[in-house]
Amino acid sequence: MGKIREACKKAHDIIKERLRPVKRVLRGAGDKIKLWITPVKRVLRGAGDKFKVFITGAKSRLRGLSKRQRAFLVSGCAVFVLAATFAGTFLFLDYRITKGSVGIVPDDGSFESEVAPMPEIEPISEDERNDLDEDELTDEEERQAIEDEFEALNGYVDGVFRFEDQIIERVEISGDVYNILIFGDDARINQPRGRSDAIILASVNRVTNEITLTSVIRSTFVPQRIGGDSWDRINMIYAAGGPGRAVNVFNYLFSLDVQRYVVLRFSSVFALVDRLGGLELELTAAEARAVNRIFPEFDPLEKGMNLMNGRQVLAYSRLRALDSDFVRVTRQRQVISAAINRVLEEGNFGDVLTLLSFGLDHVETNIPLAELITLTFEVFSGGKPEISELRIPVGRSYYEGLFGIQPVLVINFGMNIRAIHNQIYGNSQGVRVPAFVNPEVGSLDPDEETEDEPEEGTPHEETPVDEIPIDEGAIEELPIDEQE
Q1: Burial per residue of 162-172, b for 16 or more beta-carbon CB atoms within 10 angstroms, e otherwise
Q2: How far apart are the first and last CA of the chain?
Q3: 210-225 burial by CB neighbour count: b if 16+ within 10 A, else e?
Q4: CA-based R_g, the chain, Å
Q5: 321 φ/ψ sector (left φ>0, alpha ψ -120 to 50, else beta)
Q6: Which residues lie closer than 8 Å to 202 by C-beta, 6 or more apart?
Q7: How far is residue 249's CA from residue 230's CA, in Å, rounded to a whole number?
């Protein structure tokens, strides 16, 4: 025991000796803090005295005011507080809405860049195309894919999108038309960004109060960037360069002035359907049977108008085995149109708040809050807008070919550019076809001449789309959008 006590005493003395310099340091630090705090105390004491004098003077002045003057002063203070609160809320929401979005940069001449010629694409027959179709999912596999979409939505993380390219500033074509390019991101769980399998241009005409939804088939064969040397499907541009590159190439291809975009995971649209209490859509008998097979536990759907929940709407939008990508894109447009009509017809302010709240959590956009409020007011104040639709490529303006192992649509850019401008702006006079559109691309028959390209500064003679010559033998007929 004696040895233990001696060892403990020795350890105590060693620790005490080691702590002496630490105590000296702490004591010195304490003295320095006291020296620093002393003038701070004097300053605070002086400020407190001045504040007391100010309050005392303010009280005496208030006593000298009449009731009317006091009421005016209180009202002014209340207005100031409300204005400051509104400004703070506005700035916060504007930050939340545009956080992480792509900026707009001045044009550095990129739109004058040349693009590599299009690779030679041989047309394929319908039978050859059918042989290339991906293996269709079974009903159970389709159901699981939809559940995965909703699981990915629930696991959404802020900043999941990684942007690269900035949007190049374009001269506005018309102040009457506000264009927004919508990308439906097909990214799966833990995937930062996927392809844009839904590409829809929403054009709001502020004069006629008309909304035009222009959808682009995802397999359209286009240059992958301005001044680039590669061609591929249009839905690959977003995956490689983000919405900035996708907007720039879209403007370049179709001579447009899009500066605003919206990105959402496609499944989020259908989660929104559940928040709105469902969506009414008109189905064919075949479509109803297909959705019922995927989700047999829900109330069965029938031919005609049906109230559908989010999962049913997503299953409906994914249907492709019944027909083709053309009809699939039409279904996507119909879903968006039905959602817009739902909000506009009922005029329910709660639905508007639901949309705004949902957008804060699940949408990436570069639309400033001020523009969003102005656009919403214009649309709602002008009565129910008329919604029209356009699909690119338009009928008889394309043929289907094979690029590597995947089918692509080779389109007549001239026809489709004019179709878009005629639909959105009412005419296509003066619209220029991009310089890369050589005869092999601009005409689907390289041996057949289309209308000559104008010299710089000379407007096109406006030509109806259906009068532009095209080799009908190289083009498949436009698939019908509705099943009998």
Answers
A1: ebebbbbebee
A2: 102
A3: bbbbbbbbbbbbbbbb
A4: 32
A5: alpha
A6: 179, 180, 181, 182, 211, 212, 213
A7: 13
Q: How many whole angstroms separate alpha carbon 108 and alpha carbon 105?
A: 9
Q: What CATH number has the domain bearing residue 190?
A: 3.40.630.190
Instruction: Quote the CA–CA distance of 333 and 389 in Å, as a whole number.
Output: 8
SS3 state at 481: coil
Is 130 part of any domain?
A: yes
Q: How far apart are CA 248 and CA 227, in angstroms?
A: 11
Contact call for residues 363 and 264 (beta carbons, < 8 A): yes
Which residue's entry shows tokens 């104040």? 381
Query: What pLDDT score does 422 carry?
Result: 95
Mean pLDDT per block of 10 residues along the chain (484 residues) reads: 77 80 80 82 85 82 78 87 90 84 89 82 78 62 62 41 76 94 74 78 92 92 86 89 92 94 77 82 91 90 92 83 73 80 64 66 85 84 83 89 88 91 90 62 41 34 36 36 36
Domain hosting 253: range is: 99-474
Residue 247, pLDDT score: 95
Please confirm whether the linkage preceding 393 is cis (ω < 30° from 0).
Answer: yes
Tokens of 303: 């031919």
How far apart CA 129 and CA 132 sit, in angstroms, is 5
Position 263 in a domain: yes
For residue 124 the two structure tokens come to 């394929």
pLDDT of residue 462: 34
In the prediction, which pLDDT does 151 show? 52
Q: Please tell me the total count of domains within the chain.
A: 1
Q: Across the chain, which distance is largest between two alpha carbons, in Å?
A: 114
- On whether residue 17 sits in a domain, the answer given is no
Residue type, 316: Y
In a domain, 216, yes or no: yes
Length of the chain: 484
Tokens read off for 359: 């957008």
